[in-house]
Amino acid sequence: MLQHLRPAVVMIALFTLLTGVVYPLAITAASQILFPSAASGSLIMKDGKVVGSGLIGQSFKSDRYFHPRPSATVAPDPQDTSKTVDAPYNAEASAGSNLGPITQKLLDRVKGDMDTLRAAGISGLVPVDAVTTSASGLDPHISPAWAVMQVPRVAKARGLSEGRVRELVAARIEGRNLGVLGEPRINVLMLNLALDALKQ
Amino acid sequence: MTWNGWLQIALMFALVIATARPLGIYMAAVFEGRSTLLERALGPLEGRFYALSGIDPKREQDWLTYTIALLAFNAAGFVLLYAILRLQHLLPLNPQGFDPMSPHLAFNTAASFVSNTNWQSYGGESTLSYFSQMAGLTVQNFVSAATGFAVAIAIARAFARSSGSTLGNFWVDLTRATLYVLLPLSVLLALGLVALEMPQNLSAYIDASTLEGAKQTLAQGPVASQVAIKQLGTNGGGFFNVNAAHPYENPNAWTNLLQNWAIFSLSLALAVTFGRMIGREREGWALLSVMVLFLAVGAAVAYWAEASGNPLMHAMGIAGPNMEGKEVRFGPALSTVWAVFTTGASNGSVNAMHNSFMPLGGLVPLALMQIGEVVPGGVGSGLYGIVVLAILAMFVAGLMVGRTPEYLGKKLEARDVKMAVLAILVMPLFILGFSAVSAVLPVALAGLANPGARGLTEILYAYASASGNNGSAFAGLTANAPWWNTTLGIAMLACRFGIIVPVMAIAGSLVAKPKLAPSAGTFPTDGLLFVGLLAGVIVILSGLEYFPALALGPIVEHFQMLAGKTF
Question: pTM for this structure?
Answer without folding.
Answer: 0.94
